[in-house]
Amino acid sequence: MSKGPVLFADIGKKAKDLLTKDYNSDQRLSVSTFSDAGVALTSSAVKKGGLSTGDVAALYMYKNTIFDVKIDTESNISTTLTFTDFLPSTKTIASIKFPDYNSGKLEVQYFHDRASFTTAVALNQSPAIDVTATIGTPTIAFGAEAGYDTTLGSFTKYTAGISVTKPDSYTSMILGDKGDSLRASYVHHLDLLKKSTVAGEITRRFSTNENTLTIGGSFPVDHLTVVKAKLNNHGKLGALVQHEVIPKSVLTISSEVDTKALDKSPRFGLAIALKP
């Protein structure tokens, strides 16, 4: 793949991951194993609100092809097939979920030194079509996204965004929800290794005059432990601790508190990821 601008879906992703990833209010356990034949097996279990669910996933990689299949406790089978460089500078992703045969989707991603494009089509009788495009460089990228419903004959979404990447910071701005929302984010790395990071994100919804500001950060305690925290202007405070118990196996403890309603019990989450 070329080293051009990011895909449109990646604009704003760095701030979103820092402020949302690994913050859980449930109990999760995942166990992964790998074979010499290139097969990865992952078994996951989740308990939330007294209900327990789980799934088993298998991933097989061969040259430029990735085959991923997942089976959950409700006997749904999700299959994803990814081809890299099936055509020059492209990635092709085909997915379907059984027994919902109308859930199939085909996506083609194209990468160029100055642009990237994606086209996703639902595999059913009345397909929805999503198209994205970005132009620029790895430093600055301008992008747009549009979704079209062939049944209704109208656009279901249109979004525009811009991102600026520097060695120690990342800035993005996205105009979405058909022009009804504006989301701006900023990520700053505090050290050369990019292990200590702070981020801020503000979202403005014009139809309701509502603003949401979230600030947070990630900081290493030592080479095995990371602490993350976030707070928004609605008083929601979240924090988590991640510790590498054994190599590649991570324990995550997270919590969320509503500082404007301290009489309510805080929410706690626990996640364990075991890898060989």
From TrEMBL:
UniProt GO MF annotations? porin activity; voltage-gated monoatomic anion channel activity
**CC annotations in GO:** mitochondrial outer membrane; pore complex
Subcellular location as annotated: Membrane
- What keywords were assigned to this record? Ion transport, Membrane, Porin, Transmembrane, Transmembrane beta strand, Transport
InterPro entries in the cross-refs = Porin_dom_sf, Porin_Euk, Porin_Euk/Tom40
| Domain of life assignment | Eukaryota
Gene3D superfamilies tied to this protein: Porin
In the record, the note on similarity to other proteins reads: Belongs to the eukaryotic mitochondrial porin (TC 1.B.8.1) family.
Q: Which PANTHER family match?
A: MITOCHONDRIAL OUTER MEMBRANE PROTEIN PORIN 5-RELATED, VOLTAGE-DEPENDENT ANION-SELECTIVE CHANNEL
Name of the featured protein: Mitochondrial outer membrane protein porin 2-like
